[in-house]
Write a structure and sequence with these properties.
- The chain has helices at residues 27-34, 45-53, 94-105, 122-128, 151-165, and strands at residues 2-3, 18-21, 40-43, 60-63, 66-67, 70-71, 81-87, 91-92, 110-116, 134-139, 143-148.
- The chain is globular and about 40 Å long.
- The strands form three sheets. Strands 2-11-10-3-4-9-7 form a seven-stranded mixed beta sheet, sandwiched between helices. It has a two-stranded antiparallel ribbon with strand order 1-8.
- The termini are close together.
- Helix 4 packs across helix 5.
- The protein has one domain.
- The protein is of the alpha/beta class.
- The model has no long low-confidence stretch (mean pLDDT 88).
Amino acid sequence: MIRTGASNTDLLKRPFGTLVVEKEITKQKIVSMLEGVGKIITVGDATTDRLLSFGITPDIAVTDGVERRALLDHSTDYQATEMFCTNPAGIISDKAIEVLQKALEATSPIRVKVQGEEDLLALPLFAMAPKGSVVLYGQPLEGIVLVNITEEKQNQAKELMIKIFGNLI
C-alpha cells in the first residue's frame, strides 16, 4: 500500500491539468474539450454525474458513493460493467491499482466502485491511462479539472507519486 503523509497533501491540492471553473462548466464547453480524445475517465461521483447529465458516458468512472464526506442518497445509474475495490482514505491500495489496470484493459464502459475513498486514485490513472486519454476529476468548490494524458503528464504523475509516497505504482 502507498500512503500519503499529511505534509505532502498540499501537493495534491493543486490542479494537475486545466481547471474549468464551476460557472464556466457547460455541456458545449466540456464536449468541445473532449473532442477527438481517446478514453474518457472520470474520478468522483459529482464529476461522473455531471458528464452523464451532458450525455457523455465515461469509458471508466471511478466512484465511491460519497461526495464531500456525505453519503449520496442516489447513484446515477447507467449501463456499465462494474468492478470493485477497497481503497482506504489517504492510501492508494495495491488492489485498487490492480482493478484500475484491469479497467483500462477492459471493454468500456466500466464503473469502478470503491469502498473507501477514490480521490487519490486519479494519480495512478494519470500515470497508467493511455496517451490521448483524458482524466476528469473535481476540484472541491472550484470546478472540474481536465487532464490530457501525454508522456509528460505520465512522467509528472510518476514523479509526484515518488515525492509524496516514496515509490511508484
